[in-house]
């Protein structure tokens, strides 16, 4: 005898809690939230035991770096929640809200220009948890990248934050080496020797930081670390690469303040089912920047 079908209202309610119905069954996938995809060994062990005890023994990893435990029968959902709660784990990550924050491993990566773990954990606390009860026009995604390698594709999120290095140098100290290491190492050919002095085309520079400490005569040892912010990215049936704001921030708290301004703008100006990219397109990028208080390039 087949199990009674679960009604659509109950399926919708459970989806809001992070349980997605497995097609054609009374079983669900539980979306367990992680902070930037990083899990302690104890949490990972707890998820593994939960998959065996309540699910079908399998787990998958989502594009938002969450963990889904597959095949949990409807009647075991509450017991599952209580079980993972023992290790401080919970489900969610659905709906027209700020979605789980994604992050690369820039904190420990040789190319990392920012502490991506620290920043993503703070954003998770302030905006995934802090804005959890705030309904938005549509889902809202935030991604963190440690450098312009863009391993986690932060510029395909509604807000993408990328580590940046703003090189500073004294051109007069350049000795005009025939084989300039700065020219050689730059992936976008931004530095050029002009009249035997190095110059950087700032319109080409992607702030990757590869020029740091590469000069034989140490004229590239100085510089500022910062945060390049992209807005309006998305992927799926419609894909848009986010556009960089006309400023590179050099203080972490400025980034958090900016995120709050963008979310507040989106909440007030977005129409139902409209992603941030569409709001910016409708209003205009310059007016969008003006609403954030961005009037000039600080790079």
UniProtKB/TrEMBL annotation:
UniProt entry tagged with the keyword Oxidoreductase: yes
PROSITE patterns per UniProt: 4FE4S_FER_2
Keyword Iron-sulfur (UniProt): yes
Matches recorded under InterPro entries: 4Fe4S_Fe-S-bd (IPR017896), NIR_SIR_4Fe-4S (IPR051329), NiRdtase/SiRdtase_haem-b_fer (IPR005117), Nit/Sulf_reduc_fer-like_dom_sf (IPR036136), NO2/SO3_Rdtase_4Fe4S_dom (IPR006067), NO2/SO3_Rdtase_4Fe4S_sf (IPR045854)
Coiled-coil region list: none
Keywords, sorted A to Z: 4Fe-4S, Heme, Iron, Iron-sulfur, Metal-binding, Oxidoreductase
4Fe-4S ferredoxin-type domain sequence ranges: 165-195, 196-225
Pfam families: NIR_SIR (PF01077), NIR_SIR_ferr (PF03460)
One MF term in the entry's GO annotations: heme binding
Protein name, per record: Dissimilatory sulfite reductase (Desulfoviridin), alpha and beta subunits
């Amino acid at each position: 005898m087949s199990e009674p079908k679960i009604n659509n209202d109950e399926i919708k309610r459970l989806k809001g809690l992070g349980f997605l119905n497995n097609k054609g069954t009374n079983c669900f996938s539980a979306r367990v939230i992680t902070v930037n995809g990083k899990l302690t060994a104890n949490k990972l062990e707890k998820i593994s035991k939960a998959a065996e005890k309540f699910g079908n023994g399998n787990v998958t990893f989502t594009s938002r770096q969450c963990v889904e435990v597959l095949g949990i029968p409807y009647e075991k959902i509450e017991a599952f929640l209580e079980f993972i709660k023992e290790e401080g784990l919970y489900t969610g990550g659905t709906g027209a809200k700020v979605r789980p924050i994604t992050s690369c491993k820039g904190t420990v990566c040789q190319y990392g220009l920012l502490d991506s773990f620290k920043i993503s954990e703070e954003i998770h606390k302030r905006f995934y948890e802090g804005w959890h009860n705030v309904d938005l026009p549509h889902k809202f995604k935030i991604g963190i990248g440690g450098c312009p390698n863009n391993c986690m594709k932060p510029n395909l999120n509604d807000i993408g934050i990328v580590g940046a290095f703003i090189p500073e140098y004294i051109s007069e100290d350049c000795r005009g080496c025939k084989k300039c290491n700065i020219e050689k190492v730059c992936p976008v050919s931004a530095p050029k020797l002009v009249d035997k002095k190095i110059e950087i085309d700032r319109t080409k520079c992607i702030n990757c930081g590869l020029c740091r400490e590469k000069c034989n005569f140490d004229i590239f040892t100085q510089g500022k670390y910062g945060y390049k912010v992209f807005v309006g990215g998305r992927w799926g049936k419609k894909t848009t690469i986010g556009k960089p704001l006309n400023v590179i921030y050099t203080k972490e708290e400025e980034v958090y303040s900016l995120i709050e301004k963008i979310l507040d703008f989106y909440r007030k100006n977005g129409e139902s089912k409209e992603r941030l990219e569409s709001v910016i397109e409708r209003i205009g990028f310059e007016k969008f920047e003006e609403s954030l208080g961005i009037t000039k390039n600080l790079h």
